[in-house]
Amino acid sequence: MRPIHLRMARAALGWTLKELADRAGVNMNTISRYEAGSEILSGTMEKIEEALTGQGVIFIDEDAEHHPAIRIRKEPGYPFQIQAPEIRSFTIRSGLSKTKPKKARKSRR
């Protein structure tokens, strides 16, 4: 997991640094430092990864054609389901308004 993966996963789950730190059992400053590009201990990295993968996050490595990315697995009991927006039908009114337009004010000189 790279720092960008961590930032994307937190954003996708809607987690703050504190929420991830609490769920992973690590210090919030450690997560912040890693997101900024600093190294962290492998045991700490594993705790963070377990917290994220437990919520369905899948890390996708960079290749020649694509940037690093994440996906979130659809699972029963997942905290939220992403749904397509509701499609509402509407009609376009034709013709003019039934009210009379306001008269333009005459400028006073």
Summarize the structure.
The chain is mainly alpha-helical and 109 residues long. The chain contains four helices and two strands.
What does the model show?
It is a single chain. By secondary structure, this protein is mainly alpha-helical. The radius of gyration is 25 Å and the shape is elongated. The chain has a two-stranded antiparallel sheet. It starts with a helix and ends in a 37-residue tail after the last strand. The chain has 4 helices and 2 strands. It has a domain at 3-72: lambda repressor-like DNA-binding domains (434 Repressor (Amino-terminal Domain)). Helix 2 packs across helix 3 and helix 2 crosses helix 4 (42-53). The mean pLDDT is 80.
Q: Characteristics of this structure?
A:
434 Repressor (Amino-terminal Domain), mainly alpha, about 110 residues, 4 helices, elongated, two-stranded antiparallel ribbon
